[in-house]
Batch of 2 targets.
Target 1
Amino acid sequence: MKRQLILEDGTVFIGNGFGSEINTVGEVVFNTGMTGYQEILSDPSYCGQIVTLTYPLVGNYGINRDDFESIQPAISAFIVKEVADYPSNWRSDWSLDEYFKMKNIPAISGIDTRKLTRIIRQYGTLKGALCGIESDAQEVIQTLQQNRLVTNQVKQVSTKTAYPSPGRGYRIVLVDFGMKHGILRELNKRDCDVIVVPYHTTATEILQLRPDGIMLSNGPGDPKDVPEAIEMINGVLGKVPLFGICLGHQLFALACGADTDKMKFGHRGSNHPVKDLSTGKIAITSQNHGFTVEESSIENTPLLVTHIALNDGTIEGLKHREFPAFTVQYHPEASPGPEDANGLFDQFLQLVKHEKEEGVSAWQNVQI
Ligand SMILES: NC(=O)CC[C@H](N)C(=O)O
């Protein structure tokens, strides 16, 4: 069934619809990963976005039971060059088409994704609509140009109530801004006694859980849309060791007085090189972000830049000069992508251990 992808700059692509037949709008972004489409489409940080993959053939190994990053995918729509109708893998349970129909998410194939990606790189991420062939393109373009997309996506994807994921190790409170399961998996693997809490949980409520450490998860949208989290971070900073990922990193920066900004087209892919400024080591990382911490805003804050992106020099890691708190813009939990940075979870737990055994002074001696 022919459907159209319409962009706010006036470009119209005609392709073949699959998955759900509903019409949708969203921010069109590209991901350069060659594999990992299941993890990408189920990453809650894509809430409200229409994702195109630059890799040309998608769906070959199907969708399986085990590789989801959330229970309910939050992406608005999916765009591919060619979709595999007959996946082949022993783990495969559904084809992309079957899965998207089941989850009511529209998708389109037969799109020149190289052209689309070049438009996004030139124009910056832009609003788009996936709709039926009968829709009037000029009308849709006008609507896209005149309306803002929905914000406050964190509220849509965060858990509504707190829940435990018990273990025998350190008590970690994981604040869910749209958490990828991978983060919880890494903590569970290390036997942490995790309590996942909603995005609006206050500092007092978190401290009442007597955590040994606090983790700030990834999540969708603009960090400035979540002021309650910034307030919470200020209330726990210096009291309990803190580790933040992606949106968690941006919220931490805002809480410490730095600023964030929207990037032209962001970083989304599985092979972004990041340099650790203290060791000079390079990690190949998985990334998905459209906002960044502004470098010029760091100067008068208590923050130290620990990592930078080698492609464009933007900030990829921060630590607090005084308190036990550090964050990264990339994804140490991978899923999908390389596991070069996976050791950050161990470093966090080492920090938690030091703090528990020796108090705040130990922080000064721990290398991040
Ligand atoms: N993966 C994330 O946490 C993304 C953070 C934020 N929504 C951004 O786009 O920059």
Target 2
Amino acid sequence: MARRIVLSSDRDEPSGSTEDLTIEYAEALNEQQYAAATAGKGPLLIVAGAGTGKTRTLIYRLAYLVETGTRPQQIVLLTFTRRAANDMTARASNLLDGRCEKVRGGTFHAFCLEVLRQHAEALGFPRNFTVLDAADAADVLSVIRTRGEYGDGEERFPQKNTLYSMFSSATNRDETLGETITKRYPQFTSLHAELKALRDAYRRYKKEHGLMDFDDLLERTLELLETDDDVRHQVASRCRHVLVDEYQDTNALQAELVKKFSSVHGNVTVVGDDAQSIYKFRGADFRNIFRFPDEFDDTEVVKLEHNYRSTQPILDLANRVIEQAERSYDKTLFTEKTEGELPALVPAADGDMEARFVAEMVLRLREDGVPLSDVAVLFRSSHNAYDLEVELNQRNIPFVKYGGMKLNEAAHIKDVLAHLKVVENPQDAASWNRALQLIHGIGPKTAQSLIEWTTEAAEDPLTLGDGAPFSDRYAARLKQLFSTLRHVRSDDTSVTEQVEAILDYYQPLFENKYADDHPKRAPDLEHLAGLAANHESRQRFLSSLTLDPIELTALDQETGEDDEPPLVLSTIHSAKGLEFHTVFLIRALDGTIPSRHALREPGGVDEELRLFYVAVTRAEEGLFISYPMTQYRRGQGEYMTTPSRFVEDLPDDVLEPVQLVEEDAVDENAPDAPEGGDTLPSSRNGEAPAPPESTRDDGPPDDPADADGLPF
Ligand SMILES: Nc1ncnc2c1ncn2[C@@H]1O[C@H](COP(=O)(O)OP(=O)(O)OP(=O)(O)O)[C@@H](O)[C@H]1O
């Protein structure tokens, strides 16, 4: 063991003095927020309803801890996205001073990565291991499956993405593979032994090739802290205060990690809202928040119920919605904004009419002075917004859509990153595979023999020696590839230069592979080079892209800086934590929200209910919940839909029914002219809606996994 020099921890002991505080905490916060922000040592659970200022409370707590003498480097702030941590530390710095920027903040995965980069060798991994995102991991599984000839029997073997989800689900839920298969994939029960063997092979492969997937980051860190008490002590000593945001969305592994991180000092603050737990499909367990007081002795519990965001009518609806959940902390949101419009329930004849209604209302709001960017249209899954996108484009209403594809999920970006990854970790066979097969003339077989040669036979994996098994057909390009990779590896090239060098090499391959649409894809490549500039090393650049993916649409948005800030279209998952003057929740159908898939899962409906709750609590002043009464499905034609069960039993004085009327259909002299309806200018192809008729289920099939490609 290396020689040790032990540093004294005396000067780390915070003074705890409150004498010279510069911030007026009691003035800026309400009584409960104040109690939470200024709480002393030990475990603290803040149960915070939507819009009750949990973010604000955490920011003040950060400032308070720093102001009362805790060194910022010894505060760990774990959040759901890196952006959330950066925003919070920046706001705390504004309140206090630059010391708050030094707080160690980020996601669980990023924090674990930091720990593993220092200690991976203790687990038999190199420190420069590569992090696989979900798609990379599925590709690796596919390679192993093909090589090992799994699933050659009579029965259908799961696809690579299913395999990854299955293994990941077991890990995140802390279940055995057998339990996961029985509960969630019963159709594969008979393949249990083969699946288990495949999972073992996947684990071995990752270790041999220096690869870790997202789950490994958590699982391996926990393994390290459980098995090596010395490392646990080192890591936990530097966590004098652990603060966890969105605790309701932690999974079993994360809850265990929190215990380990806080195992030396015992100071842990978790903030969460059980009613907003919406990541069950990734293993999140909202019960963690109920268990917290049992897991940590002498927990102080503070509840935040004063909502500062929404009007009382919107909160009344939110309270009524969440009452339907099976289990929740007893908290009732209230506000001082007692006046306001009732939330509206708006049936439309079909998807087209629903889209026209939203577009029309957005323009009316804009005329009334509500900026487009202060209005959001929320939906369960990205495809729910297609009709609306067409409508908005036709009317030239600018919008940005969140919850779609991430930059590093796009094929052309993956191509470029594969080159950077092989330089970083020449054992990364999946990335070699991708990079090699871009070259005309190299197929899977040739790629395989070249990979074996580079990873096993060659002295330097980035140098093509004489014995290399390549043919003249692609020799020139292959040599160019290797010389590019060696250039990228050299010490004196910045990350931007590395990306530029790969782009120069990649350009002709890119134009060839994406012959149909490469001009449309090209700006993403430029953007990638720009992003690289912010990173001091290739390794950090790759990790940050993997752990904190950037939305492709966010890139589009940056190009038109002078334009009016756009309307926000977002999946509900991606709207978490945001607030808007007016919210439209579209496609509120049974089968869409709750999704069909959720109806089959134990606890699935409650999860969807919480999702619905997250959507309605984003609204400050206006809330419209709409749905099409008919939909079209290929092969089936037009059919009647059923509104979401979550709105079905709500009384009119909580959710006001609104009738949409086509302008053409209004005959003001007619004795039965509709009263109080909102008219739409003449329909392009529709008739006035028929009255709703209920037949259960009918939204499009839905998969929670496509609800959002969320960053960890
Ligand atoms: N004590 C307060 N006085 C005035 N405004 C406040 C106070 N606390 C919070 N707010 C305001 O209330 C709004 C909601 O706060 P915040 O975003 O922190 O809530 P949240 O609990 O994180 O919400 P959610 O969980 O629903 O995303 C913000 O606009 C915030 O500025």
